[in-house]
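Translate sequence into C-alpha cells.
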Amino acid sequence: MAAINLMLNEFPWDERYRVPDVEQVLTPALVVYPEFIASNIEQTLALLNGNADRWRVHVKTAKLGYTVHMLIERGIRNFKCATTLELMTACGAGAADVLLAYPVMGANAGRVRDISGQFPRTKISVLAENDQQVTQWRGSRVDVFLDINPGMNRTGIEVSEHDRVCSLIRQIQSAGLEFRGLHYYDGQYAGLAEPQRSAAAHAGYDQLFELVRTSERSGLNIPELITAGTPTFPASLSYAGFANRIMHRVSPGTVVYGDATSLAQLPASYGYAPAALVLSRVSSRPHEGIITCDAGHKSVSADAGVPTCIVVGHPGMTPLSPSEEHLPVRTTNGRKVDVGELLYLLPRHICPTVNNFDSALLVSGGRLAAVERITARGREGPLLKLFDCEGESSRGALSQRA
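Result follows.
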C-alpha cells in the first residue's frame, strides 16, 4: 500500500478567527477559540453516539488546564497522557481516570507514585511490557495496562505473543495490582489514504481480538481495550467487533484543536474545524515572490515536515522551510503583502506547536477573552526530590555537592 502526503493544501478564511486589538498582541501568538473547541468536542461525542465514557482523550494535544476543564464539563472523565506534567494537569483539572501512556522507569516511576498520592480520588494507570515494568509498581495504588505493539515498532509487546501477554497479566495480578486492559496505538497507518487505512487497521483489530480470545480462554478477563489516535479513529468506529465490547475506548486528541493533517485525514462529514491557530506578522520581503513572517520552527512545529502550516484564507501562499524564528512564504497570487501584515497559520501538527508556547490567547465571541498558561508545556523539573539543606536553594545545594 502506497503512503501519501495527507495534508490540506488550503483552508478558507472565517471571520470568527479574527483577533481583535491586534496592536496589543505580540507575535507569534497561539490563539485558541473556545467555541470551536466546544464544537469539536460535541462532534466527537456525536460520533460516539453521545457516550462520553468511550473517549479516553489524549491531552498531549490540549495541554491547557482550561481545555481539560471544558472536556470534563461535557462529561469526559477518561484521559490519556505522555508525561508526568500532563498527568498533573489532567489530575488537577479533576479527571477521574488517567492513563500515562508511556513506559516510565526509575525516577519517572517514582514521580507517578507521588502524583498518585496527591490525587487519591483519581484512578491512575501506566503501561507495561515486561517483568521489570510490572514489579516496580508493587505496593502502589497505580493500575497497569499492557502495551501492545500493533506493528508501529515503537513500544509494546508483539500482538502475536499471546503466551507472554497472559503471563504478564498473571504477574500483574500476583503483584496485587489491578490489570486494566490492553493499549493498542496503531499510528503507523496515518499516511495511508482511505479505504486502505481502515482496511489495514481492521486487519490489526482482528489480530487484537485473537489475543483477547486467547486471554479469555485462559480465564483472564480484558476489562478495557484502548485503540485509535486521530488517524484511525474512523476505523475504530467502523469495526464491528468493538460494538460488542462496552469497555472499548478510543483515544484521539488532535480532534480537540484540529490541524492541517487531521482535517485532511478525517471525513469532512465529521464537521471538525480548526480551534487553534498561530498569529504571525510579516517581517520582511527579501525577494520578489517571497515574504518572511515571524513563525519559525520554534513556534510552528516542523516535526511533520514542510510546509509546516497553511496560511488561512490565502491559497496562493506556500510556506517554505523555516529556520528558528523565520518562516519564508512563497506568494504566487500577485498580491502585494505589506511588512507588518498579519497572517493566520493553521499548523500541520498542532500538538508540538502548542508545546512551543508558554501561553495561549483565548478569542471568544470576537473579543479577547483571556490569556491562559499552557499548563502541560514542556516537562517537570529534573529532580525527583529537591535537596533539603535547611533553607538553601536546590541550586546552592547542588553547587556544594559538586
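Note: Confidence is low (pLDDT under 50) at residues 387-402.
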